[in-house]
Amino acid sequence: MCPKKSSRSTHFDYFNLYLIVRNVVAKYHTLCDNTTSNSSPLLCFVDDDYFCLCDINNTAQCFLYNKKFDQCKQCLAEGQCIKGDIDTPSDYLCLCPRCHFGSKCQHNTELFSFSLVSLLSPDLLSSSLVKQKVSLSMYISVPAVLLIYGTISNFFSLVTFRQPRTRLNGAGHYFFTGTIFSQLSLFCLLSKILHIIINIRGLFIQPIINTVLCKILSFLLSLSSRICYWLIVFVTIERIYVTIYPTKRWLQKPKIAKTIITLITIFTCASHVHELVKYNIVDDPKYTANGKWCVTQLSRPLQIYNQTNTMIHYLTPFLVNLIFTIALMILITRTRANIDRNKSRWKIFQEQFKKKKEMFIPSMIHIISALPHLIISFSLACNDLDTKWQRYMLIISYFAAYVPQCLSFHLYVQPSKFFLREFHATKIWKMLAQSRTTIN
Q: Dihedral through CA 52, CA 55, CA 61, CA 66, nearest 10?
């Protein structure tokens, strides 16, 4: 690549001397002559109008130069695009800004900006066919197992929370709605991965349908998983309220719970609406003839907003859940310790945890599943992910964050004697119990 005359390297100090000369091109011969003695002689250079070559006689051979030949707009994230062969569309190079990588600078590694496509694509585009096939089967089978198991678990939860008695308090409404969004998030996770594979492999799909899927799947995946986080937070808040004010019912009222659920849904949808607008399909002929990426094209202010928005929806529920769960444990232990002074607080805590485990288990499992991804995302922010284990740790932690969504029955129903009793009163359980009796 030929340097411009505005460069600050040693060769270009001569340019400043000749700027005052009316006919600059005539002085370029001297520039070629003066640089031949350097260890790295100047071979070519460009200015605003000319492209010049220094020949073997130290003479500048200059030609009128149209800079449009070198211009290309293939790069995202304000990356610098360098054009190669004019007749080859895929012959270009993107110089990506910090924290971005990829053939089009389409992948972002800033804090809370890792995308599923940026984590999976290196394996799906591997030069090794064996690695491609193994990765393909793994990345499809893991979310498929989560979806299948989650469908069974979520179905049992929905059947339970459709019982009128389970929704006399706010927690039942939060669990019922959370189960619906859990199932939606698992479905969108598998659909998103299949969509990524279809696009990377350049398989045929109608452009309009492809764009709609790109926008809708990304939006729903973000929306559903983050609503689940917020709903568990309000379950914990309600239980702290009951512990502090055992005789009051204001926050337990179904009407209050329905209002909170509506506000959470509206707030989460509104804060993610930019994903519907900014997610787009981008062609990338570098890998396959019809290869495409489903990526965001965000301006810098919108990038900052997106990053902040993700942190709010991820960090806030996590921290509130963590703090309130610890506070709930302390309150219950302290209340019981004031009644029974003959036992140690640790012994009382163990007894109360076993007795009221349904109050702690959902929040604790959500915290444990989210913690690895939180730590790794912070640790690897703006990292090039050159080391494979770093990327694989992110992938594992990403999938682990969806484990609570497929365990709703085990988290919400089984730990509670009341909810489990309501499940045993359903027709589904009676049919299962009858079939087991018949088999035995």
A: -30
